[in-house]
UniProtKB/TrEMBL annotation:
Pathway: Carbohydrate metabolism; tricarboxylic acid cycle. Belongs to the succinate dehydrogenase/fumarate reductase iron-sulfur protein family. Keywords: 2Fe-2S, 4Fe-4S, Iron, Iron-sulfur, Metal-binding, Oxidoreductase. GO terms for cellular component: plasma membrane. This is Succinate dehydrogenase / fumarate reductase iron-sulfur subunit. One of its GO terms (biological process) is tricarboxylic acid cycle.
Amino acid sequence: MEGTVEMGYRARLRVWRGDADSGELRDYEVDAEEGEVVLDLLHRLQATQCPDLAVRWNCKAGKCGSCSAEVNGRPRLTCMTRMSLFGEEETITVTPMRTFPVIKDLVCDVSYNYVKAREVPAFSPPGGLEPGEYRMHQRDVERSQEFRKCIECFLCQDTCHVIRDHSENKESFSGPRFLMRVAELEMHPLDSHEEKGGNRPEEARGDHGLGFCNITKCCTEVCPEHIGITDNALIPLKERLADQRYDPLGRLFRRKNR
């Protein structure tokens, strides 16, 4: 109709295609509409040009963490990356997460993370209390609630240079997501892991590689839930470990208690 303004345009995508053995970046042009996100264009690319394009996704609402990829080199959720962030003439490069082995196209094998998750000792309930009898201060609830917002998109794992640039560290380093889990449990006032002979700060150092972390805050910068991973989890965990190992008064107090 005369006078109608065309809102769509042809977006330029450069998408990594391949598998664990080989692959390449391929250029495509895809229709884009106002208000769309990168995942919308990947779906349209599947529907119109590349039916065999492998893309992992689920909720398309930024809550499942499935659609993690790297957009123009930055770890992002493709369902939360708006096309309006880029110019209409800009080529948008979409690649799989670099830290993890590629299965096909944009789908990675993230099983490393599930192995590390199983290595973290679970919450240890306090003795003498039944479920429903637990009581905590509200400030303690709020402190750990931030960490429970994690959707396990593993973008923090992907961007952490300790394993991104040095895959040989994967065996001894659990990454920011699971060090955050250790910190959450260490801060939990009802966790009785220590009373049963455990020591979460020491386990973070010995079993999970806390010492590899040099607090560059790259994990915090890419977190889609805006969790203060470095400031609120990793640094306090390092401080607790330093207190245990090097504070002379603390060591004297613990020795007296034993």
